[in-house]
Structure prediction request, 196 residues.
Amino acid sequence: VGDSGNNKISLLEGYNMCNHDPPTIMFGATALAKEMLEQLLKTKTCTLSTGTTHQPLAAYKSATRKGGTTPIMTFESLGLTPVTSKEGYPPAVSTSPIHMQSRLMDTADLGSGEMLLMVEVEYIIADESAMAAPTASMGSRQVLAKIDCELIDPIVSMGSGRFAKVSDLYSMPRPTKQEDGSWCSTELIPLPPTAG
Prediction:
């Protein structure tokens, strides 16, 4: 988060919810350092880059909380190279295969000084290293390639500066309508690993 001239970066941990239509990520304002939050509220733009196994030290350093908040770092201090992929948005992390150029869509005051931020993803930029061939299960849709989670090689935060690699992926089928009118999906289907 920030403007294209300051090359500041901060780890975003603990987002609450994702939505696909429109593609939206929601998280508490306390997930960001005060300076980053002020910058996001001012510019209304941010770039989100995925954390991968290629950046373990950078992730650890940027997760080391000071005074209860995630520190703001520079790309240089974390050994990362910034890259500008879309004009008008802050820089992305060059070694991340997925970048999301996003705009602050809305905020919600939760009371007691808490605020929820809703960020809409305007552009998803995927490197070819994260793309795999379409599968037969996609049917007759005209798909040239699909983003493959295993090829992204993501790491996830376990809290307290600990990270782990994603090892198993599951698919959750669309929910079905229940007798009481609610929608429910309880089945998780293991996905076969990507070849190679």
Notes: The helical segments are 34-43, 56-63, 149-152.
